[in-house]
């Protein structure tokens, strides 16, 4: 397991992550990328705990996702199954489990202030924290074909992962209204959604 984790995690996070995995009886599965989520936690019918994390994540996002999912397991075990999945109990547990990792030996210096801010009140997904999400994406293997919604000019046409085309419209408070070209329906997009620009 240590050899596997060394491929996916920052070097100085491996032993502590391994401890968390063993301590909580986690069966970790590293899976091919799913578009809708970075990872998930499931209690299996036999009572074991399975956590899956996408193999394509960069090592910093992989670590955050792994600890996020272990926090679900720990919070459910401690507070019971009736708590909200991303409620106060999970937030406190996630903060507590993540704290030992928030160090310059684990994360690059430019990420630490953003992570500190994010973990004051962690969200269900680090993707909803646009600044942190964009900063983390800088450590991905870059796809030169992709752009962020916030970078596109008003009125641009873009394609999302499933092939659907949209036209960028006005910004609401945080998200952008975009009209699906085929149906005319309006959808809201996070500013840091990665898309392929078709025409501006």
What is the topology?
Blueprint: H1 2-8, H2 14-23, E1 26-31, E2 39-43, E3 49-54, H3 59-79, H4 88-98, H5 112-118, H6 130-137, E4 146-148, E5 157-159, E6 165-171, E7 176-180, E8 186-189, E9 194-199
Parallel strand pairs: 1-3
Antiparallel strand pairs: 2-3, 4-9, 5-6, 5-9, 6-7, 7-8
Helix pairs in contact: 3-4
What is the share of helical residues?
A: 25-40%
Low-pLDDT segments, ≥5 res: none
Q: In which order are the strands of the major sheet placed?
A: 4-9-5-6-7-8
Structural class: alpha+beta
Tell me the name of the CATH class of the largest domain.
Alpha Beta
Mean of pLDDT: 91
Element string (H = helix, E = strand): HHEEEHHHHEEEEEE
What is the rounded distance between the termini?
47 Å
* Domain module tally: 2
Shape: globular
Oligomer: single chain
What gyration radius follows from the Cα positions, in whole Å? 18 Å
**What would you say the CATH architecture of the largest domain is?**
2-Layer Sandwich
Number of helices: 6
DSSP summary, beta strand count: 9
Q: Biggest sheet, open or closed, and with what strands and sense?
A: 6 strands, antiparallel
CATH structural fold name of the largest domain: Zincin-like
The proportion of strand residues reads 15-25%
């Amino acid at each position: 397991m240590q050899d596997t984790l060394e491929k996916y995690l920052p070097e100085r996070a491996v032993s502590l992550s391994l401890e968390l995995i063993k301590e909580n009886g986690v069966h970790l599965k590293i899976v091919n990328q799913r578009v809708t989520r970075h990872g998930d936690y499931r209690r299996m019918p036999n009572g074991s705990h399975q956590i899956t994390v996408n193999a394509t994540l960069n090592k910093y996002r992989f670590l955050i996702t792994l600890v996020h999912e272990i926090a679900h397991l720990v919070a459910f075990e401690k507070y019971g199954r009736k708590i909200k999945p991303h409620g106060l109990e999970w937030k406190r547990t996630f903060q507590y489990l993540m704290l030992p990792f928030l160090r310059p030996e684990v994360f690059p210096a430019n990420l630490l202030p953003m992570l500190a801010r994010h973990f004051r009140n962690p969200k269900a997904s680090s993707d909803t924290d646009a600044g942190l999400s964009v900063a983390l994406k800088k450590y991905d293997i870059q796809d030169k074909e992709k752009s962020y919604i916030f970078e596109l000019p008003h009125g641009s046409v873009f394609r999302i992962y499933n092939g659907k085309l949209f036209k960028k419209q006005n910004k609401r408070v945080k998200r952008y209204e975009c009209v699906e070209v085929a149906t005319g329906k309006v959808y809201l997009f996070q500013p840091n959604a990665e898309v392929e620009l078709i025409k501006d």
